[in-house]
Write a structure and sequence with these properties.
Cyclin A, domain 1, Cyclin_C-dom, two-stranded antiparallel ribbon, 17 helices, Cyclin N-terminal domain-containing protein, Cyclins_cyclin-box, 2 strands, Cyclin-like_dom, cyclin
């Protein structure tokens, strides 16, 4: 079973010539994008209006807006800038009382059914805002303290401190990082497939699955997609094959459709449907891919947010203080990708796979085994991780002579540090 070879597309697949071939991507994509106008002054203005305003009423507030120098785009419409200026010149936190029957500052009479309340009535104490000091800890602080108490890093430092070290990057969400990965650990079993699911397929087998994934690794590399896209693609394929009977002539269609869905989910500039038609040597039409997309999403019930070994590896590297150790990260990633086309590797969860890969990679580079510390800090099953590490070591040793070489060739290049050329370690030494 052989699939069309992915063409060399140095800078992505999204630009074609008149004949439909993929051409290197051009900077004209960015030039064609319509430049959006910058927003004006905008902020959290909830509760910030200290004067009565009528939004959208024709002729409301023209004279008052001009007298106070407020910017107004058109009569009766409160713009963002006008709202910001209005909030800035408020009445020191006190509401403006407008007597009934008179016009407010925007020139509109209040409705009879919406008269302002008299907050100065005798016997009604004015509510006071609770002080920030008496409010206690915020929910974010409580979650962070709880996560720090439960999860300890490989270096004996609370995980909360590890996350706070990267607090300057808002994408790391240090307040919730530990809870996010605790949630991933709790739900990863829901998105794992049975290790023997292929035995229930009548027309395909694990060898065909391996050929498909080996080809998709090449396609992923040529399209220059994010690493997360590849892992999500394989997860979607396995979950779909577990749920549906698929013929061998439609197996590649399932593969390209899974990568299309994963690209839409993970990428900023995802390949188009026509790119997958071309990359599969026009074995399937655009309509067939779109139809399969509907079938897959409905079968999987649109559950696309799934934990993968790649996400757990990133977390373990942070806990071990090795986020800047590029060689270790590349070697561990190489081992995980070696396991993607390997059907027996489905026995282990992503969290165990990531810990085992980090253990083998650290020993291959002549460093101390990272697994003992990870088993205590990340709560990894030591026996399962040791068994998985032995399996990954065997895959690493046999990769140079394997018949499917997409992953080995990828990580033999200088771009990935040629980590595939490292000798397999003698585990436990």
């Amino acid at each position: 079973m052989q699939y069309a070879k992915a063409p060399d597309a140095e800078n992505g697949p999204n630009v074609r010539d008149a004949k439909g071939h993929l051409q290197p991507g051009k900077a004209s994509l960015a030039a064609q994008a319509v430049a959006r106008r910058a927003l004006g002054d905008i902020g959290n203005l909830v509760g910030g209006f200290h004067q009565k305003v009528n939004v959208g009423k024709e002729g409301a507030g023209d004279a008052d807006a001009k007298s106070q120098g407020l910017a107004q785009a058109r009569p009766g419409v409160l713009t963002r800038r006008a709202a910001a200026q209005l909030a800035a010149i408020g009445t020191n936190g006190e509401p403006t009382n407008v007597p009934a029957g008179t016009t407010d500052s925007w020139g509109a009479k209040p409705r009879n059914s919406l008269r302002p309340r008299d907050t100065t009535a005798a016997g009604i104490p004015k509510p006071t805002a609770p002080s920030r000091a008496s409010a206690g800890r915020s929910m974010s602080q409580m979650l962070q303290d709880r996560s720090a108490a439960v999860s300890k890093s490989a270096l004996g430092v609370p995980a909360g401190d590890v996350d706070q070290a990267a607090a300057s990057d808002p994408l790391t969400v240090p307040e919730y990082a530990s809870d996010i990965f605790s949630y991933y650990r709790s739900v990863e079993s829901q998105f794992m497939v049975a290790a023997d699911y292929m035995s229930r397929q009548s027309d395909i087998n694990d060898r065909m699955r391996a050929i498909l994934i080996d080809w998709l690794v090449d396609v992923h590399l040529k399209f220059k997609l994010m690493p997360e896209t590849l892992y999500l693609t394989i997860n979607l394929i396995d979950r779909f094959l577990e749920a549906k009977q698929v013929t061998r002539k439609h197996l590649q269609l399932v593969g390209v459709t899974a990568m299309l869905i994963a690209s839409k989910y993970e990428e900023i500039w995802a390949p188009e449907v026509r790119d997958f038609v071309y990359i599969s040597d026009r074995a399937y039409t655009r309509e067939q891919i779109l139809q399969m997309e509907k079938i897959m999403l409905n079968t999987l019930r649109f559950n696309l947010t799934v934990p993968t070994a790649h996400q757990f590896l990133a977390r373990y590297l942070k806990l071990a203080g090795s986020t800047r150790d590029t060689e270790l990260a590349r070697c561990a990633t190489y081992l995980i990708e070696l396991a993607l086309p390997n059907y027996p590797s489905l026995r282990w969860s992503g969290s165990v796979m990531a810990g085992a890969a980090l253990s083998v990679a650290s020993q291959a580079l002549g460093r101390a085994d990272a697994l003992p510390a990870l088993c205590s800090s990340a709560q990894i099953d030591r026996a399962a991780a040791r068994e998985c590490a032995s399996h990954l070591g065997s895959l690493m040793a046999g990769a140079p002579s394997a018949s499917l070489t997409a992953v080995f060739k990828k990580y033999s290049s200088d771009k990935y540090g040629a980590v595939a050329r490292l000798p397999a370690p003698v585990l436990g030494a």
